[in-house]
Amino acid sequence: MIRSVVRGFGSALPQRVVTNKEMESLVETSDDWIVQRTGIRQRYIAGEGETTASLGEAAARDALQRAGLTPDDIDLVIVATSTPDNTFPATAVNIQNRLGMTKGYAFDVQAVCTGFVYAMATADAHLRAGMAKRALVIGAETFSRILDWTDRTTCVLFGDGAGALVLEAQQQEGKVSDRGVLTSHLRSDGSHKEKLYVDGGPSTTGTVGHLRMEGREVFKHAVGMITDVIVAAFEATGTTAEDLNWLVPHQANRRIIDGSAKKLGIPLEKVVVTVDLHGNTSAASIPLALSVAASDGRIKQGDLVMLEAMGGGFTWGALLVRW
Ligand code: UT7
């Protein structure tokens, strides 16, 4: 059977790092509070000329270089983002053009913090259906541009950045030992809208709006939703927590990450954590974490890697891939 195999990974971050100390000068907060409640120590904030598309393009070029491929080898670009450069055209089409691609197709996926899991599952479906041969799957965000910088309950949490994977359709044996995406499980429930949303949009206010979150309410649902989809991925493949080499979670809050791993019996040494470095970069957080752990040699070819996320909507999902 055809599987979507990871050929390359890449990432890009804005130039400017903003530490928790610096946040203390903007809002009534403290390094202690932020570290204890979230695990975040710093985040990257986009400056002039840095946009979701420019960061996404840089991450894509990095991933292509690692894969030993050129933009001409790609026929599908999917960008997971909630902070597009423009309402339309899609950021994916913008990046396709920036890469100089003249063939294939490109579109955005919008599932907020679960966006990268949705984008990977979508790319996998297209590759397995034979619609494309190689896909760039990009998570790119500039959440700093939709934050209310006077609201300490949200502005300290988020950051900007982008990460990308190159997926390639390859013939595999149809076994759990295959390389590539083995299973994906996507969920959503729109009844939770008011707990995490942006209070503007083209069709309502005609403005971009600002992020609003009832953090405690999101927190209450997070661990249960995350562990449910991970269990679904284990059941679908006949694997267990012991078979897993790495859990690469969405990086929103260290306490949510630790709580989910503990509930599933996954030792913390097998969990990739980058929330301290990047803050919550929404759809970019998983590919950024993958890039860190794959470039420092932790994630190696043949490793079984679980991706999971939960966020606005609510949306949540898990995807199991053999690297
Ligand atoms: O990626 C999408 C999914 N999003 C998430 O997963 C976020 C989920 N939620 C969370 O991560 C946590 O709920 C937060 C980190 C947002 C907040 O942590 P918490 O332990 O739930 O704190 P809390 O909201 O219950 O607030 C505790 C206290 C409050 O003061 P009082 O009412 O107890 O006096 C807040 O006003 O902390 C106060 N507070 C702050 N203090 C210093 C809230 N924000 C800050 C701040 N600095 N930045």
Automatic annotation (TrEMBL):
| Positions of region (ACP-binding) | 251-255
Task: Tell me one Pfam family matched here.
Answer: ACP_syn_III
One biological process term from GO is: secondary metabolite biosynthetic process
Under which pathway is this protein filed?
Answer: Lipid metabolism; fatty acid biosynthesis
Would I find Acyltransferase among this entry's keywords? yes
Task: Identify the EC number(s).
Answer: 2.3.1.180
One GO cellular component, as annotated: cytoplasm
**For the Beta-ketoacyl-[acyl-carrier-protein] synthase III C-terminal domain, which residue ranges apply?**
235-323
Which key words are in the record? Acyltransferase, Cytoplasm, Fatty acid biosynthesis, Fatty acid metabolism, Lipid biosynthesis, Lipid metabolism, Multifunctional enzyme, Transferase
Where does it live in the cell? Cytoplasm
Q: What's noted about domains in the record?
A: The last Arg residue of the ACP-binding site is essential for the weak association between ACP/AcpP and FabH.
Q: In UniProt terms, what function does this protein have?
A: Catalyzes the condensation reaction of fatty acid synthesis by the addition to an acyl acceptor of two carbons from malonyl-ACP. Catalyzes the first condensation reaction which initiates fatty acid synthesis and may therefore play a role in governing the total rate of fatty acid production. Possesses both acetoacetyl-ACP synthase and acetyl transacylase activities. Its substrate specificity determines the biosynthesis of branched-chain and/or straight-chain of fatty acids.
Q: What's the protein called, per UniProt?
A: Beta-ketoacyl-[acyl-carrier-protein] synthase III
